[in-house]
Amino acid sequence: MKNAAKKIYIALIVLFLYAPIGTLMVLSFNASKTRAKWGGFSIQWYIALFENEEILRALFNTLVIALVSSLVATVIGTIACIAMTGMKRQAKSILMGITNIPMLNADIVTGVSLMLLYISLGIRFGMGTILLSHITFNIPYVILSVMPRMKQLNPSTFEAALDLGSSHLNAFFKVVFPDLLPGILSGFLMAFTMSLDDFIITHFTKGVGVDTLSTKIYTEIKKGIKPEMYALSSLIFVTVLTLLVLINLSPDKKEKK
Amino acid sequence: MNKELIQLVDISKSFDGQMVLDELNLSIHENEFVTLLGPSGCGKTTTLRILGGFANPDTGRVVFDGQDITRIPPNKRQLNTVFQKYALFTHMTIAENIAFGLKIKKKSKSYIDDKIRYALKLVNLEGYENRMPDSLSGGQQQRIAIARAIVNEPKVLLLDEPLGALDLKLRQEMQYELIRMKNELGITFVYVTHDQEEALTMSDTIVVMNQGYIQQIGSPESIYNEPENAFVADFIGDSNIIHATMIQDEVVEILGTRFACVDTGFGENKPVDAVIRPEDVILVEPDAGIIKGVVTHLIFKGVHYEMEVTANGYEWLVHSTTLFPVGKEVGIQVDPFNIQIMNKPESEDEEAVAIDI
Amino acid sequence: MTSKKNWLSVPYLFWSGLFIIVPLGMVVYYGLTDRTGAFTLDNITAIASAGHAKALRLSLLLSLVSTVICFLLAYPLAMILAQVQVKRHNFIILIFILPMWMNFLLRTLAWQTLLEKNGVINHVLSFLHLPTLKIINTPAAIILGMVYNFLPFMILPLYNALAKIDGNVINAAHDLGAGHIHTFFRIILPLSIPGIISGITMVFIPALTTFVISSLLGGGKLLLIGDVIDLEFTKTSNWHLGSGLSMVLMIFILINMVLSAIFDKDGEGSML
Fold first, then answer.
1. Distance CA B6, CA C177 (A)
2. Closest approach of C79 to chain B, Cα-based (Å)
3. Which residues neighbour C212 within 8 Å (Cβ) at sequence distance 6 or greater?
4. pLDDT mean across residues, chain C
5. pTM of the full predicted structure?
6. A31, B357, C66, C147 - which has most CB atoms within 10 Å?
7. Mean pLDDT of C243-250
């Protein structure tokens, strides 16, 4: 009885979180152009999507920015974590404090502060400024997921590799890196997700004529969202869901065997 | 023996369809130090959790002082537990930790203060009232966990592998401390461990468990000297467990050679297991022994030498204060009193038969 | 390794200096100057003007209510989830991060469809013969949007903090005679404070400073402080005023950072 209540509660929260997503998926198959009424089942928006160059362009921009910014952030963040292990306690806590700023600060403040920076430095707004901004807010996610792994690391394994005749670089990639890898991967995924979902910071740091999916949707809100957008979002969501389910199921199978 | 305080009657428990305890019966007496001993997964911790009220048995009853407490929640039981890894409240001071149970019972401030002082004195940590648990060493946290439990004056103290996280020296120290505390408090201790040495050192009674069944109940001496089956013999200390044939009363054939023994009543030409402790194997000159063998391994262990002697195709484990170098031919002798004969289990089930007392 | 580590910190030091510290300095500089570059406090005192003060008050009210609702919804959920086996840990986190893969604006927009007078929810309600909802374009809809968007940021830190509590600590409280209520208030709640603080921060700050949710669900008539700042930067191009108002927001953020530094020293209530 008590367990049933718990399950119902979880189900209600999950329903609350996923109801809008379900709605969007249903809308993507709506033959009618307005959200207000159901015009019958149709896959026309999925076909139209692949002919809508503006949306495809925005998708391309979004993916490039998410991929490049999370990759760069992963490299800088991981190196920063390694550097911090050799630092004095105080220097380390100051740097961790700075790392926390973009996490705790409001996106709008981060956005306008970066905008003011680019203006003062005379950097032209465009893909470049979006990329720089995304790298900046992505690095903390990488650091915060690599750092715990770093703390668990046994320093002796690195020394053991050196003792066995390995060079510093080789010892790092053969011994330390594999131990950090789960943290690095989850940091990368987190950064990628955050970059993909970001609207506010991109809104302030993008140039005229350059759009990501978020900013494209924002400008479309006033004129009415093109149903192709629902189709695209549904496709992205289902793709990610499938990938994650596959990744999550695979270790279970191994255990059972 | 003192009067019975706790009875576990026909207790069964399974998790996810897996039987953890199978119709377990056990009596615990007043002022007794009982140790539940066995490998991990043998059901010892589950038994303790059922006693503490943290797990409900599927069937069976827990009787405490003549009263059925099977369905009574832990906060209404007159037992207290010392948990694995201590489970101290890290957000409270040592004094607040110890006072926790007493405050719930609405004891007066002066009573609580007295109790805290008394308990800290008992566990040799006077003056630690205002420290936080995190600032204490593992051994000190362990003592606080004990202090927190005993201030409630439980009739029974349940201890779940309390020394598991401590290093060897501290562990030995705490073993003596626990015996002292038990004698000082005059209450029953039910102690769970997988460490046979710990069990032999501290207990009045040892309950050896495996796969949800009680294998043997007895004093440390009887468990060590007269194991009732191969599992107990193997689990308690090192043993030579050798397939043998009982030729007739007081004669057993081990590895093709007849040995005199003191056991009777096994029948004639019956396959049995013979258990011989390594310290009971006597090495002599080759011709003076009952069988001959060659020393194949030798390790110095401090108090004695540990040797392996291959004789009649079996590797005998031998503890001896006399050194016999590797490669030397030796004779093996065993005092008839030191050969323990056990029936061979006919099936897994019989090996694990429940023993009532 | 140590001697060579020093130069490893250079890229990040450079990056965080240029893209975190300097930009915040720029906000302060713009906030404290006027168009001629002269020092002024006008941009900050502008928060007291009727329109701005009203926007800030509304923002504070809505974000406080949203934070409280998120906390009340998330705490029981996190407690239930914390009892689930550790093996499922990643799966649980995934469930609450996954919605972020559907665009934030579209997700919020979908609530329009759900909440509209002839929307899905009202269809269901009238089918069940229940009174219909009329909350679209009201502050209630904005609160719903905030709760919806930021709830995962409350659930995850609470779940992480609660999952870390050793089950035996709770057993110990029961063992010492505490009932369920006593155990909750004396043991579970105090031990989850790092998660609570982190959850509150992760919900309150974004909710206080959001500017799209209000225009999507509030019908565009209700201005939040985030909307005002957005307008100053993107429409009227008064960066000085926008920066001054941002500095006011930063005061709230600073208070929050100090609080979380005090209560969550080891980063125990982190999201990941």
1. 20
2. 18
3. A199, A200, A218, C104, C105, C108
4. 87
5. 0.82
6. C66
7. 93
